[in-house]
Design goal:
It contains eleven helices and no strands. The protein is mainly α. The protein has one domain. The radius of gyration is 20 Å and the shape is globular.
């Protein structure tokens, strides 16, 4: 297994794809975090309350969530590309089993997910600092260092899960273009259409458990809780305040750990399906 993992890292690092997708991911995290800190929709409320609260954490979470799509595409294309170029054939023939190959890929791409997560966490933090420094009303204050490091760590974990989901999609579809279209169209179009249908059928309680909402829910919920914790003198409980903010921001999430479990379940299902198909698939 160790040799297979080393081989996977060699494949990854000898191509340009890993950094070609990391750069736009980091830029998205930077711009979304910084721009949001300046132009967030809660400035008027905060100005009237006279409180200096960590609004930057909300937009940092949004920027990280937007960047995860690039990590998923990276994982999907890198794996599906092997099927297109037939390099997977040599790997399967020389490895002890196809299961070992897929396991090595998951370990290697989990490592790359950490790289993506750290890169985007750093760029998102820089963006938030820049946004805070130029915010005219100073509402972009940061939480304490421990809370900021916690949400950065959560962001790295979420990035790993999205990367691994991409690996599962690439293993399942075996085509780079098809994998990109499947991920992009689902995240940007299909899930919103499903949400609309659920809303018209009065099934809004299902919306937090859709794949993209579950993936985004970890950071969104954590950021809202950090934000609410910094507020003083609010006449409602933390849970009520978080629910009110969800409604105002029009986000549909569950508590962070439930979102993480649901998203991990989606990753597991996609990966198992891809593994089962590839156990018998002809790759010659």
């Amino acid at each position: 297994m160790g040799g297979l993992i080393k081989a996977e890292f060699r494949k990854i690092l000898t191509t340009k794809m890993w950094w070609a997708l990391l750069i736009p991911a980091a830029l998205v995290a930077l711009v979304a975090s910084g721009f949001g800190s300046v132009l967030g929709g809660l400035e008027d409320v905060l100005r009237e309350s006279g409180q200096k609260v960590p609004i930057a954490v909300l937009f940092y979470a949004r920027g990280m969530n937007q960047a995860t799509l690039f990590a998923a595409i990276f994982g999907a294309c890198a794996v599906a590309g092997e099927f297109r170029t037939k390099t997977i054939t040599t790997t399967y023939l020389t490895a002890s089993s196809r299961t070992a190959v897929i396991g090595a890929k998951l370990i290697a791409y989990a490592g790359m997910g950490v790289v993506y997560g750290i890169g985007c966490a750093i760029s998102g933090s820089i963006g938030a600092v820049i946004g805070d420094s130029i915010a005219s009303d100073g509402t972009g204050a940061f939480p304490d260092l421990g809370a900021w490091l916690a949400i950065c760590a959560a962001g790295i974990g979420v990035m790993v899960l999205w990367t691994l989901l991409g690996v599962g999609v690439g293993t399942l579809i075996n085509n780079p273009v098809g994998s990109i279209l499947a991920l992009t169209l689902y995240v940007l179009v299909a899930e919103k259409a499903v949400e609309l249908v659920l809303s018209t059928q009065k099934l809004d309680e299902i919306r937090p458990y859709l794949p993209n909402n579950a993936g985004n829910g970890v950071l969104t919920d954590l950021s809202l809780r950090i934000f609410v914790k910094a507020l003083t003198g609010i006449p409602v409980s933390t849970e009520q305040a978080v629910d009110l903010l969800r409604q105002q921001m029009q986000v549909h999430t569950d508590i962070w750990w439930a979102s993480a479990l649901v998203f991990f379940g989606y990753f597991g299902v996609v990966t198992v399906l891809g593994w089962l198909l590839n156990e018998k698939r002809d790759v010659t």
